[in-house]
Amino acid sequence: MSHPRHELDPVIHTPARFSIMALLSAVERAEFRFVRDTVEVSDSALSQHLTTLEKAGYVTVRKAQTGRRTTTWLAATPAGIAAFTCHISILNQIAAHPPHDANAST
Amino acid sequence: MQDQEDSTMARRALAEAERVREQAHRSSRWFSGLLAAFGGASIIWITLLESVWPEGSARSYVAAGWAVVAGLAAVGTARFRVFPAGATKRMAISAIIWFMLYLVVIGPLARWQLGTSVPGWIAAATVMAVPFFAAAWMGRRP
Questions:
Q1: Rounded distance, CA A4 to CA B19, Å?
Q2: Do B25 and A26 make contact, defined as CB atoms within 8 angstroms?
Q3: DSSP sequence for A33-68
Q4: Other Cβ atoms within 10 Å of B54 Cβ, number
Q5: Nearest residue on chain A to B76, judged by CA atoms?
Q6: Hey, what CATH topology would domain A9-97 get?
Q7: Nearest residue to A22 via CA among A62, A58, A71
Q8: HSE-up of A84 (CA within 13 Å, CB side)?
Q9: What are residue A69's phi and psi, to 5 degrees?
Q10: Could you give the ipTM of this predicted complex?
């Protein structure tokens, strides 16, 4: 029997991307700066992580004009929410996994 | 040993997810306030429209006033950085139910039974505003 850790989504598993998905799966949409401040990453790091998540089909990035300012809105896609929910359930399994069970199975 | 590390890592990740979600929830509370404000404004608007100024040009100004309030609210929401999950759906559903109650059910019934009675229309408008208040209450906690 394989350990649940092997089922973790490699795209979401990175700490920053995990936090981004945790945030976006809890809201309808959030502004780029809010995500940056909450996840505590730089603009460039967030952009890189968003590119990865966007390529995986987990988030959408939309730019909107608000007066003279451009606002970047981020949102999780249904596929992203499903992947994050699955990731969380696996983490719950791992967190509840008693160490002696694994020793017994190997 | 590996299992112990995995378990600790998983607990930390779950705690981080909870922290981030709590932050998102705190930052999106404004939306429930907006829905409640819409409910309150709709009570005032309907009472003015149906009871205080039921006829004449004042009625037209009051009617147009609702469009101004909705427009200002739309502009005002642009300064918020987070929209809670299901925000658009909650607003749309509560507005449609409110409008249908006003147009088809309680509005005609109140006009027929209450005439231009101020207390009567305040009560009727409060019942019609329930969808806004219910949507605001539902957004208090995920």
A1: 24
A2: yes
A3: HHHHHHHT--HHHHHHHHHHHHHTTSEEEEEEEETT
A4: 15
A5: A66
A6: Arc Repressor Mutant, subunit A (1.10.10)
A7: A58
A8: 26
A9: -100, 145
A10: 0.83
Strand pairing report for B82-84 and A59-66: unpaired
Structure tokens at B99: 């409008």
Residue given tokens 């609210």 in the structure block: B73
- Does pLDDT of B13 surpass 80? yes
Among A19, A71, A92, whose Cβ lies nearest the Cβ of B20?
A19
Q: Where are the domains of chain A?
A: 9-97
| Percent over 90 (pLDDT), chain B | 50
The helix (run of H) or strand (run of E) holding residue A3 is none
- Which residues, 6+ apart, have CB-to-CB distance to B94 below 8 Å? B35, B38, B131, B132, B134, B135
Which residues of B are less than 8 Å from A38 in CB distance?
Answer: 20, 23-24
Residue A105's pLDDT band, with cuts at 50, 70 and 90, is very low
